[in-house]
Amino acid sequence: MLPADWIEHRRSDRELVGWIAMEGDGFLAYDILGRQVTTEPVDWLAAEERLDELGIGYVADRYLLTLPDGTVRPVRITEVNTQRIVVIADEFGAASAVGSNADRYELPFPVPGELRQVRN
Predict the structure, then answer these.
(1) What is the DSSP letter of 84?
(2) Sign (positive/negative) of CA torsion 54, 82, 8, 23?
(3) N or C of the chain: less Cβ packing under 10 Å?
(4) Are strands 104-108 and 84-89 parallel, antiparallel or unpaired?
């Protein structure tokens, strides 16, 4: 669930790219998955710039999901909103296959640590 004190930040085309929240005398930036993307409080402009620089392209990247039994599955994100994040299993590119019956997983927002971005 979206914290009440997070303020939306949209880029110039009005696309939501994240949120900014006050922390002490500065601000923290959070991406659309709810991950903190500034390591320490910064000024408002720096938080906006970080979100604009990050954009939303990372949503299309591959991720790894660690299931409760310890199994790790490659997945792709199919839906993001402030209530949930939905991912679909992506072994061998199955997520992009038309008519695919790949497994779906619903995760809470902000995204939990069990979902990790694959770094190329």
Answers:
(1) E
(2) negative
(3) C
(4) antiparallel
Taken in order 92, 95, 98, 101, the sign of the CA dihedral is: positive
- C-alpha 63/C-alpha 85 separation (Å) is 12
Q: Tell me: do 95 and 47 sit in the same domain.
A: no
- Sheet containing 104-108: give its strands across: 104-108, 84-89, 72-80, 62-66, 115-117
Residue pLDDT, tens place only, 48-85: 999 999 999 999 999 999 999 999 999 999 999 999 99
Q: pTM to 2 decimals?
A: 0.87
State the DSSP code for 17: E
User: CB-based contacts of 101: which residues, under 8 Å, 6+ apart?
Assistant: none
Where in the sequence is the domain holding 108, given as residue range(s)?
61-117
Q: How far apart, in Å, are the Cα atoms of 120 and each of 10, 22, 55, 63, 96?
A: 27, 33, 18, 11, 19
Q: Average model confidence (pLDDT) for the chain? A: 92
